[in-house]
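ingest -> validate -> predict -> emit
validate: passed (alphabet ok, no gaps, 177 aa)
predict: started
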Amino acid sequence: MYEHNFPHKRFNITLGFIEKHISKDQSILDLGVENPFSKIMKDAGYDVQNTSGTDLDDDVSEIENFNGNVVTAFEIFEHLVSPYTSLKAISGNKVVISVPLKLWFTSAYRNKNDIRDQHYHEFEPWQLDYVLEKAGWKVMDSIKFTNPVKKLGIRPLLRYFTNRYYLVYCEKISSKT
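emit:
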């Protein structure tokens, strides 16, 4: 699909999607601490700043204080009780977001040893679209894609043809006067 060669299929697809919609002269606030994908964006020539790891359900000040035009959130919103709060706090006019899709054959990820490392939400596409629209965003482009794993079994087999991720590019809806 895209020409990049990364160890993870989702990195390849996500960077290609960003390159399709976001120019390299726009600064990006990537929600979450620095991670392998934010480093990939920087290596690709994007000006990327990450949030410090504060709980975005309780404190959106880093989002509100960002002076750039683009906010990205890759596999972040499923960890929040209310993604709506963060989406409303964005002052820029573009967002790129990916979330894991709810799968009928497996339960949501939960880490009993770390309350922040679990999925409060796993989305159906309409659910993310709804919260985006309610927060003032319009989905301009979207893709869904699979995430096969190299394991044996029925669930790993299902991951070869069942979409696991939903990736969207949105623009802020102009306020009505």
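The chain has one domain: 9-172.
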